[in-house]
Prior knowledge:
Shape of chain A: globular
Mean pLDDT of chain B: 93
Number of strands of chain A: 4
CATH topology of chain A: Rossmann fold
Number of strands of chain B: 52
Number of domains of chain A: 1
Oligomer: heterodimer
Strand order of the largest sheet of chain B: 5-2-1-13-24
CATH topology of the largest domain in chain B: FAD/NAD(P)-binding domain
Low-confidence stretches of chain B: 992-997
Strand content of chain A: 15-25%
CATH architecture of the largest domain in chain B: 3-Layer(bba) Sandwich
Distance between the termini of chain A: 19 Å
Structural class of chain B: alpha/beta
CATH class of chain A: Alpha Beta
Helix content of chain A: 40-55%
Low-confidence stretches of chain A: none
Shape of chain B: globular
CATH superfamily of chain A: Lumazine/riboflavin synthase
Structural class of chain A: alpha/beta
Number of helices of chain A: 4
Mean pLDDT of chain A: 91
Number of domains of chain B: 7
Helix content of chain B: 25-40%
Strand order of the largest sheet of chain A: 2-1-3-4
Largest sheet of chain B: 5 strands, parallel
Radius of gyration of chain A: 14 Å
Distance between the termini of chain B: 57 Å
Number of helices of chain B: 25
CATH class of the largest domain in chain B: Alpha Beta
Radius of gyration of chain B: 30 Å
Largest interface: A-B, 54 and 55 residues
Order of helices and strands of chain A: EHEHEHEH
Amino acid sequence: MSDFKPKIVAFCCYYCAYAAADVAGSLRVQYAPEVRLVEIPCSGRIDPVVILKTFEEGADGVYVAGCLEGDCHFLKGNIRARQRVNYVQKILGELGIDPERLAMYNLSGAQGGRFAQIANEFTEKIKKLGPSPLRGR
Amino acid sequence: MVVGGGIAGMQAASDLAESGFFVYLITSDDSLGGRMARLDKTFPTNECSMCLLGPRMTGSLNESNINLLTRAKLTQLEGEAGNFTAVVERQPRYVDEARCTGCGLCADTCPIEVKDEFNGELSKRKAVYKQFPQAVPNKYAIDIENCIRCMKCTRVCSAGAIDHQQQSEILNINIGAVILAPGFESFNAQQLGEYGLGYYSNVVSNIQFERMLSSTGPTGGHIYRPSDGAVPKQVAFIQCVGSRDCRKGYGNEYCSAVCCMASVKEAIIIKEHKPETEIVIFYLDMRAFGKNFDRYVNRAVGQGIKLQRSLISSVKEDPITGNLSLSYCDKGQVLTEEFDMVVLGAGVQPPKSAGELAKAAGIELNQFGFAKTSYSNPVETTRAGVFAAGGFIGPRDIPETVVSGSAAAAAAAELLSAARGVSSREIKYPEEKILSSEQARVGVFVCCCGSNIAGVVDVSEVVKYASGLPGVAGAWKFTYSCSQESLQKLKEIIHEFHLNRIVVAACSIRTHLPLFRNALREAGLNQYYLEMANIRDQCSWVHRDYPEEATAKAKDLVAMAVGKVRHHRPLYLKPVQVVQKALVVGGGIAGITAALSLAEQDYQVYLIERQESLGGMLNQLYLPQDGIKPRELIEKKIHAVKSHPNIRVYKNAELINVSGRIGDFQSKIKVEKTTIELKHGVVVIAAGCREGNIKEYMYGEDKRVITRLEMEEFLSSGNNSLVKTVVFIQCAGSRQEGREYCSRTCCGQTVRQALALKELNEDVNIYVLYRDMRTYGFMESEYRRAREKGVIFVNYQPDSPPDLQGGYNGINIKVKDPSSRSNLELTADLVVLASPAVPAEGLDKLAGLLKIPVNEDGFLVETHAKLAPLDVPTPGVFICGSAHSPQNINEVIAQAKGAAARAAGVLSKSHLLAGGPVAKVNQEKCAACVTCVRLCPYGVPYIGSKNVAEISPVQCQGCGTCAGACPNKAITLEHYRSEQLIEKVRAMFNMEVARSE
């Protein structure tokens, strides 16, 4: 299992998560190289179809990262995102995919360290879960 | 006219151009960039200085309302404010700028090598040369003094750009105002022979060291000892070299204000390169007085960097090993330690040209040789219509330099408001090619960013991989994709290879997207046919130890960008009207200054203040600062506000709601019991700060313990006859857990108060218990004067703070003096606490209304700590004053004027462009379920007359919440359509599928 290199997709909002990733860069905080970032203007943009498609394509794990709750650049987009993530987690369970493979995180645009910590934590979790059953279908 | 091409000059020029003025930007250098171009990284983010500067320089060159003249000097200024004739002498470059392509063949063939002053003379350059690789304009120049006229360069230049016969020219330019920003110089530490610079090869100056750290510098970003090329294991920094030195001919009396942080940054960067390096910084006071500075210093200490308070008297070299030994005093003992390398924290001083320039412009200099400006208007010189900015006013760091550039722009714009828009020019882009029917031909440009990316990621491998991706017509590698040269090449390649989609794999869209979008427009492509892959900030920088994985990730990120860009559609922006009025929140010195500046620039201003009177903190300050009495200053300004026809003041007013967008905000303010609605195009937040509560040092328990604000009142009352001994305690409530910052204004205020006490009664005993005296800049003179007058300064350590006991005869204070290692016992009649400056009440709520983030200390967070100190992420909102961070009055005034200049950049336009990546409704699919109406955070969608949802592209903020929720997928968020996101993800997983399409 140790050679398993998961592919993880992180949908990151421009104002906080993407900015935090840049801060992690400028502080040179080192983190797991398995995460691939997809920038979206607001975590509220994410929709269930895009998440499910991402799993279908072969992602071992997906997370959506938005601003801190109450601090969304677009007011409430991140709250909607969380609801949708919860909803897709249910569907994943029904499909026989561990709902743990999908997560929602919140962080501020200044939290470079937190961004790295999330990437490490989630990568570790997916490594334990092993390859997605949909992978290489 | 702006004189000086550094960061201050560029900021002033771009703010003025943005506000509708035509600007001549002249620099005596060959390139823009100034001093900042020599720095490797900037703190606190440790961002590459050149990466920040690159887009600025390119932006200044490309701005149609800026005319850049290099190798040009202002020699005479005739006429008066509003109507000057500037005489400018342009030295020949001997290279025709219009013809030079920057290819560098001339420098390759040139036989003459001379010391490169740009690299601190640590390397050589040719007689025909480019100042530095990213120079803007990207043109060569000949150093005619060293040229032997062998004509080899003339023969090799196929563009025929070399012209040894070029003559200097004299230009007479008619202008309305002048901003002088010629910058500063480093103190030449060779003047201090005891440190051995120039004699001992392993002693270098801080600027030389910055060049060594730079990937384009003489050692390619590696730290080697100049004597033997070994990697140093022990490095010492010596602070205050040529600063805070009263001896004639040995430097300058003032504090250079930037060296402490520069050395801490350099030390942290050494640690990044080689964590095992032992570093000691020898300092007198650690002057980490700015926003987030103390945190940065604490981080350095946490990384094992040792800070040693000690003045180093000399450096001695071991001639065999080249090692350097320093003797210093610690806890009463003299210790000697050996180092491989010594870096001198050399201070700053006025540029050599200051005298000549002052004479040409007809202004006076101050006693230190910097431009003489007034405390109440720090950019105003002694001649009307001539302003000053940046290091020319006095030592300051990058953000303050940027602020002063903006402030000078505001001052010039106030003067010239009638001429606004008269001589400005519009940018004309080539007509866009209509491409919607053509197949995608993607061009991929992969950036090395010097060694920032290429040092970790195998860039050639990424280029090779990219060229094989479906839809890709070609892939290219750039050393610096943001350089002028690369942008030109990008445009040429677009034409040559008929590219219609572009991927730039480089750094962050947050900093560089506008630059590359502009390049696409200039090449006749729709600017939305671009996608960036962030292979630096989010790849090479964060996976340094895994080059293979980083390369794999970079390939994926490029593939993903290609996958998405193939499905991009052209998007167009529509002009929308700007309400040319401003809302200024806060009626203290910051808000008042910003309001007056905007009003003078002929915009209408609503000024709202929570309290029942204007003036804020200045109402409580009595002692004059630099000859200006704060209360008199504020009273004068309040009068000006009240009598200005363009300003409407609301007192007892609170902002309760803001909606709308840049150029068209609608705000609700509560004034006592009524609610008023205001329409405006920008918001300036100037909410200030307040004195924080103190729990320590018996405050509130004993009436003889007062705060520094209470001391101001005490001094104004003149009732000090009973006071014989006064003890000031610094950092009471600042620089501690939970409030890890410096309140900045206290040390200077304490020194002023101590001097005022001495003036009233020479016999009063004054003790100042301090951690670091942070009387930065010219305030150092006051600190020295206080010591001369007999004020006793005693250092204390945070782990053994002064201990106070109330007694009948006074307050008994015990404090441990680390230098004498003895316990000092004092009895004071009065104890003055340097109370902390904390964010104003309700600042968090205000920040929430305007979506401005606040930092851990509760102050507002700017867009960029260095280059955008007055902007926030919310477009159309600007910040200034102590809501940004604690500041002194002159600094607040500069920020307020600066914020006014930034705001005027928006207000000067009758229309802004809106639309682009916004939500779009497919009316045939819409079932009018009102999900979007319900969910939109801004209440934009509505069900229109056709019984389907309608979303106005002007009002839409582009978050996509509606698109994510629309059950029938009738709404798409342009540029982030589901199809685009899915293709982006798919490209990473299944290239086979994509290829077979």
